[in-house]
Write a structure and sequence with these properties.
alpha+beta, eight-stranded antiparallel sheet, 9 helices, 8 strands, 37% helix, elongated
Length: 286
């Protein structure tokens, strides 16, 4: 049976279903696993897609919707803060107060008593990103040596890890043409706690070898991928992924595959200006 290709309209339809569910269930606990199920998005891509279309992580959207609803009820009704808290899904009023203070910089009671306080926030101008439209590719399975790192992406020792991998290549005479620098990211930093983010720093090789210490040997699964070439600073990769998931993938009428994507780096960050860095981003598709 042939599956229908995913389109922007179909993506938005599923996003609308999620939003409606959240709006109609603010008074009760909202389970992200259930949201993923009703969205029909792949579990591997649920958080990326929703964040790309909604402009923020799904958890942040739920919190923001709750505190903004609380703000309206505080401003335009006589409901007590306790009643408002229960009405929008908080077990205790103190949880609402904490979330409200963090989001708006003012307590619920002070906001209710200060009619002149403005809580709207200014928007940030969109970045101009240099992303080449996707290229559909059949990628063979790759063999790689790798080092597994854990922690916030900005704190990881990418250069040191690749230096160690290259030293391993030298010691075991593994050099050949066509070796690739690849990173596999298993978690979304807007979903997983920073210290728990998992990354594999990989060097694709052609020759057989064995693991040694924390240097492992693995296969990077092949298959059909949409490859996007991004030119620019690594600091903006998060925004690049948002653009890919919200626009470029749906525009190509492709359905995501339940596999892990990866990034391939074409030049050296220590020898290249940030704005000239080139990254190939591979997204698995059907």
């Amino acid at each position: 049976m042939t599956q229908r290709a995913s389109t922007t309209e179909e993506y938005q339809k599923q996003i609308n279903i999620i939003i409606e569910y959240i709006n109609n269930h603010l008074h009760e606990p909202i389970d992200l696993i259930k949201l993923a199920e009703i969205s029909n998005f792949s579990p591997y891509h649920f958080h990326r897609i929703t964040r790309a279309f909604m402009g923020e992580p799904i958890g942040a959207y739920i919190i923001r919707t709750r505190v903004e609803t609380a703000a309206r009820l505080l401003r335009y009704t006589d409901l007590s803060i306790s009643d408002i808290a229960y009405k929008i899904g908080y077990d205790v009023p103190s949880s609402l107060s904490k979330a409200f203070q963090k989001h708006f910089g003012i307590s619920p009671i002070d906001y209710r008593n200060n009619k002149d306080y403005i809580i709207m926030k200014s928007t940030i101008k969109d970045l101009q990103l240099d992303i080449k439209r996707g290229k559909l590719m059949d990628i063979p399975t790759k063999k790689a040596i790798y080092i597994k790192l854990t922690g916030h992406y900005s704190s990881l020792d990418f250069s040191g890890s690749w230096m160690r991998l290259w030293q391993y290549v030298k010691e075991h005479k593994l050099f050949s043409m066509g070796m690739e620098h690849i990173a596999i990211y298993y978690d979304d930093p807007k979903v997983t706690e920073a210290e728990k983010l998992r990354t594999d720093i990989c060097l694709v090789i052609k020759k057989d070898c064995k693991p040694q210490g924390d240097i492992g040997v693995k296969e990077i699964k092949g298959g059909k991928f949409m490859m996007f070439l991004y030119k620019g600073s690594y600091d903006h990769l998060d925004a690049v992924y948002d653009t890919i998931y919200s626009k470029l993938l749906p525009d190509n009428n492709l359905r995501l595959r339940n596999e892990q994507g990866f990034e391939k780096y074409l030049n050296h960050p220590d020898k290249t200006k940030p704005e000239k860095l080139k990254t190939e981003i591979y997204i698995p598709v059907e």
